[in-house]
Every structure is written in C-alpha cells, then in structure tokens.
Amino acid sequence: MRVAAGRMPLLGHGPAMARDPMRFLRRLRDQGDVVTCCLGTVPVHQINSPELIRRVLVTDAHRFGRNRIFANARQLFGDGLATADEPVRMRQRRIMQPAFHRDRTDAYVDIMRTEIQRFVDRWRAGEVVVLDREVSRITLAVTAKALFRADLGSAAVGEVCRSLGPVLDGITKRAMLPAVYERIPTPGNRRFDAALRWFTTIVDDVTKAYRDSGADHGDLLSMLVASPMTDAEIRTQVLNILMAGTDTTAITLSWAFHELAVNPPVRRRMLAEIDTVLGGRPVTAADLPRLSYVDRVVAGTVRRHTPVWLLMRKALEPVRLGDVTIDAGAQVMISLPTLHRDPDLFPDPMRFDPDRPLDEQARTSALVPFGAGRHRCTGEAFAMAEMTTALVTVSRNWVPNPVPGHRVREVTRAFLRPDALPMTVYRRNTRNW
Ligand code: HEM
C-alpha cells in the first residue's frame, strides 16, 4: 500500500483535501495507479489508471458498493436511483430507464426549447446576466417540465422550482455532516425542513392527480405512476432526478458559454453550423444529429470541466487492483476531472478544443464524464440534448460575452463549478458575429 506523503497525526490528509481538493487529488494521481490517503483516520484508495478505473466501474463493479455518503443521503430521502444500493437500485433503473431512452428524449426537445426560449425572451440587449444562475433556473425548469409534462403538473413545476433550491443546498450539507447537525434549529435547517415539506406536498398532490386521471402523459411521472412504485418511492425518485440532473447540466452549460466567449474561432464555427443547419428556424429533435460541431463543443466542455469530481465506492470483498490489495470494507475514490486532465492521456489538458474528444475517445476509453458501467448516468442523452438545444436556442439570437475585468474561478463544491459567471448579453445581429 502506497500511502501519500504529507499525512498528519489523526487528521491524515484531511486538511490538504479540505484546502484545495482538486490540487490534492492531482498530486495523488501523480504518485501512481493506486495511491492511498487518509481522511481523518480512514484510509481511502484513489484509483488513477484508466484500466483500473474501468475495473472498478465496469468489469468488477459487482465487487464494489456505494459508500457512507450515500447511506447518509438514503436516511434522509429514502432509496432513489441516485442513492440506493443493490438490488433496489437495479430494479428502479429497469423501471426508469425507458423514460431516458433516446427516442423519448427526442420528445423532450420541444419542452427544452420552449422553456429555454421563455428565459431568453426576458433578456435585454447589453444587460449583464449572471449566467450560471440563469442557466441553473433554466435546467431546473426543463427537468421539472420533463417530469410533469401534463397540465396537471404545470403549477407543480413552478412550485418545485421555488422550493428546490434550499432542498438541494441542504441535501449536500446533510449528507456530509453528522446526523446531529440536522436537529439544530438553525435558520438554514428550518428553511430546509419547510422547503422539503412543501416539496413533498406538491409532488404527492400531482402524483395523486396523475393516478386519478389514469392517462399516460408521455412524461416521467406517468411512467412512475404506471410502475409498481408507491407514492413515497415516486417522491424519492423525483427528488433524485432533480438532484442528479439539474446542477450537473447547468454547470457544464455555463462553462460552454464561457469557453465559446473566450475562444472566438470556435464560436464562429459553431454559429456557422447553426445557421447552415437551421436557416433561421427554431431547433427540433430532428436537427440534433446534424449539429455535430455543437455536439463536440458540449463534449469538449464536459471533458475540460467535468462537474462530478469524485465517485466513491466501498469494496464488498478483497480486490486486487494493480499491485495493491483493497480490503473488504475499504473506501475507493475516482476523480473524473483529475483523470480527464491527465497530460499523459490528454496532451495540453487545460486547453479547450472541441475537435479533441473525437480523436481521443477513439484512442482511449479514459473519457467518462458520465461514468461507466452499472451506475453510468441515466440522464446522459437527456443532458446532451438539453445542452445542445440550449446552446443553439441562445446562440441564434444572443452572444454572451465576459464582463471586462471579471476572472472566473473554478471552485469545488458539491460539483466542480464556476464561482460566478456574469456575462453581458448582446443581440447577435448588432455586431459582426
Ligand atoms: C452534464 C450533465 C451530467 C453529468 C456530467 C452527469 C454525470 C453523472 C455521473 C458521473 C454519474 C455516475 C455516478 C457514479 O458512478 O457514482 C451519474 C449518475 C446518474 N445521473 Fe447523471 N450526469 C448529468 C446529467 C444528468 C441528468 C440530466 C439526469 C436526469 C435527468 C441524471 C441522472 C443521473 C442518475 C439518476 C444517476 C445514477 C445512476 C445509477 O446509479 O444507476 N444525470 N451522472
């Protein structure tokens, strides 16, 4: 076992990890294929080589389970697709997978475009939009609308969007902190409890309305209501989907707008493709396969700015990985952005280049921003369609540009994200774009 340098008594590598997680994880990567650190007194093995990562996620996935963080989240919210352990997760995945199938996702493109357009129509030429916040609101509205498509759900979409912010903030905090924290009546905890109660009431009401109507509205909730799940299980799934699908997509999309603004040749090429394919009309699902450069802009962004920065697993039995034996019960971590920024795999890794993923995906299987194996993201097709639709819908008429003097910083929160992304939005036809 190779224990990383810099371990402190009792605290282990905890302070280094807390101070600058991405720097710490990068240092671990540079020390070997499997490197052990101690978070407090708990040893955690970081897996760095693409081959061994593939074993943990894919070929030997049955020998690893979800770790303690998920157990905390489960206690709070029950078993959902993004938190449950086997065999519950597998059963839920089978029920929900069809809702995320590409055929179905195509039907969501109209919803996505309409929702995105609604936000963009409020912009005024030359105003500063805090783009990361705006995009967060957009992805939440899009996901909520795809869940509750029917008119029965339209009030719920608004209410869910209002109540979900404090719920999502609180979930991350509570999953990380000891259980005693949630019993302290801080203003944050009270806001969280009230928002969660409200969220529960809304989702239960709309589920009941769907059950009473008995119709298939072609959305995720119809699919859940038709399945053998109870109302409580459905509520958990809805929360899981909103949790897993909103911020990840919003963050990636925000970075895409940033990269386009600081890479004018890429933006010009993308706008040219949009004009050629659409000829001025709104985007539909049928256009997506022809928008190959936009797709590469998204793929290039999700490599360069991979939002899910840590996958955690627990070994269920002893597993030999490279020259290290991982004991049963030991914690294992994989840092996807650290992998995607490995200069041996992706030369000049911090350079944003939409032409890169195609070549490199062919050469290496190290590009896994949506995970791999049994936990591979169920929402990948949904997210890709949403991000493409958003880039096209915004870029047809608007050009967001950085506010002079503002420097964007990457910060490590629940996801790896920009600290703030204020951008001035210009009408496309007013300049030579
Ligand atoms: C850019 C956007 C997204 C990224 C980068 C992303 C990334 C990921 C990753 C890396 C995992 C694997 C986690 C693990 O192995 O422990 C995952 C799982 C998951 N994602 Fe996504 N995701 C995105 C968008 C979405 C969307 C839009 C949805 C739903 C609408 C979604 C739903 C889920 C669910 C339910 C899981 C758990 C799957 C399972 O464990 O069986 N994600 N995602």
TrEMBL record:
Name the UniProt key words of this record, in alphabetical order: Heme, Iron, Metal-binding, Monooxygenase, Oxidoreductase
InterPro entries, per database record: Cyt_P450, Cyt_P450_B, Cyt_P450_sf, Cytochrome_P450_Monoox
Among SUPFAM superfamilies, the record links this protein to: Cytochrome P450 (SSF48264)
Task: Say yes or no: keyword Glycosyltransferase present.
Answer: no
Q: Does the keyword Heme apply?
A: yes
Please state the span of the N-terminal signal peptide per the UniProt entry: none
User: Pfam families this protein is in?
Assistant: p450
Q: Which family does it belong to?
A: Belongs to the cytochrome P450 family.
* PANTHER family recorded: BIFUNCTIONAL ALBAFLAVENONE MONOOXYGENASE_TERPENE SYNTHASE (PTHR24291:SF50), CYTOCHROME P450 FAMILY 4 (PTHR24291)
Q: How is this protein named in the record?
A: Pentalenene oxygenase
